[in-house]
């Protein structure tokens, strides 16, 4: 009999174009050897050009999906993505409080195309309810500014950003510096306030990067479910995402996705 793979649950929105959201999460989990499960929070009409519409699911539907999975199957790591509204953020935070598994919080605020995916009224709930549940929080620089007011211009500003996010209670924070003008490198900072890990990778000349944030957070959760310590899980996830960006491909007439299956074709 085949042994069961580790179990990872994603709580996020759907991307009908398949590059980000639930679809990216489940592809990443499959590629990294874990069993992916899902709680859908919102449906988007989305393609390579942007988000054309968003429909949030009722709180009761989100709670029922979560309980159905966790109470019967169990879970060894949870990843959260698009939560859209304050009511959904608070519901998910409440569910996480009753789950004994590491949690990766990707505090999704806007899409790759700049479309809003989190209501302004939900920011306090993210700060006060969701981030304290996080084993690792993974904001990009736009999300750092949205949540803390800290604007990262230089690499040295990333420490200030990390301190600001850590003040809301996550155990670790990964400040993603992909939007920094850092020349040939994509630089991220992982810290718990005492340890610091600077992760560097070549900056790849590929515009097809839709889904990088979802993919990275899901890859971290997959590593945690496999029993890796946070720094090792993040390091492996960064390596996986760098390869996926390098293999990103054109899709439609806008920004294409990263290639979640790049290792199968390498």
TrEMBL record:
TM regions (residue ranges): none
Catalytic activity: 4-amino-5-hydroxymethyl-2-methylpyrimidine + ATP = 4-amino-2-methyl-5-(phosphooxymethyl)pyrimidine + ADP + H(+); 4-amino-2-methyl-5-(phosphooxymethyl)pyrimidine + ATP = 4-amino-2-methyl-5-(diphosphooxymethyl)pyrimidine + ADP
InterPro entries for the chain: HMP/HMP-P_kinase_dom, PM/HMP-P_kinase-1, Ribokinase-like
Domain Pyridoxamine kinase/Phosphomethylpyrimidine kinase: 15-259
Domain of life: Bacteria
Pathway field: Cofactor biosynthesis; thiamine diphosphate biosynthesis; 4-amino-2-methyl-5-diphosphomethylpyrimidine from 5-amino-1-(5-phospho-D-ribosyl)imidazole: step 3/3
EC number per UniProt: 2.7.1.49, 2.7.4.7
Enzyme superclass (EC): transferase
Entry keywords, A to Z: Kinase, Thiamine biosynthesis, Transferase
GO MF annotation: an example: phosphomethylpyrimidine kinase activity
Function text: Catalyzes the phosphorylation of hydroxymethylpyrimidine phosphate (HMP-P) to HMP-PP, and of HMP to HMP-P.
Listed name of the protein: Bifunctional hydroxymethylpyrimidine kinase/phosphomethylpyrimidine kinase
Lineage summary: Bacteria, Bacillati, Actinomycetota, Actinomycetes, Kitasatosporales
Annotated gene: thiD
């Amino acid at each position: 009999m085949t042994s069961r793979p580790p179990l990872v649950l994603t709580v996020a929105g759907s991307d009908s174009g398949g590059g980000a959201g639930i679809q990216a999460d489940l592809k990443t989990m499959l590629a990294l050897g874990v069993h992916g499960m899902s709680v859908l929070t919102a449906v988007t009409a989305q393609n390579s050009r942007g988000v054309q519409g968003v429909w949030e699911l009722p709180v009761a539907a989100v709670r029922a999906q979560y309980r159905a999975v966790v109470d019967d199957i169990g879970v060894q790591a949870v990843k959260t993505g698009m939560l859209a509204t304050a009511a959904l953020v608070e519901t998910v935070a409440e569910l996480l409080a009753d789950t004994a598994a590491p949690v990766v919080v990707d505090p999704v605020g806007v899409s790759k195309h700049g479309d809003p995916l989190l209501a302004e009224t939900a920011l306090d709930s993210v700060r006060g309810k969701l981030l304290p549940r996080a084993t690792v929080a993974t904001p990009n620089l736009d999300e750092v500014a949205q949540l803390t007011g800290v604007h990262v211009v230089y690499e040295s500003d990333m420490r200030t950003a990390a301190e600001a996010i850590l003040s809301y209670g996550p155990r670790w924070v990964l400040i993603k510096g992909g939007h920094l003008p850092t020349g040939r490198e994509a630089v991220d900072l992982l810290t718990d306030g005492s340890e610091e890990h600077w992760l560097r990778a070549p900056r790849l000349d590929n515009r097809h990067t839709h889904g990088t944030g979802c993919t990275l957070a899901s890859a971290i959760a997959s590593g945690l479910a496999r029993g890796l310590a946070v720094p090792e899980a993040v390091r492996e996830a960064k390596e996986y995402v760098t390869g996926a960006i390098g293999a990103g491909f054109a899709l439609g007439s806008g920004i294409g996705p990263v290639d979640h299956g790049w290792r199968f074709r390498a």
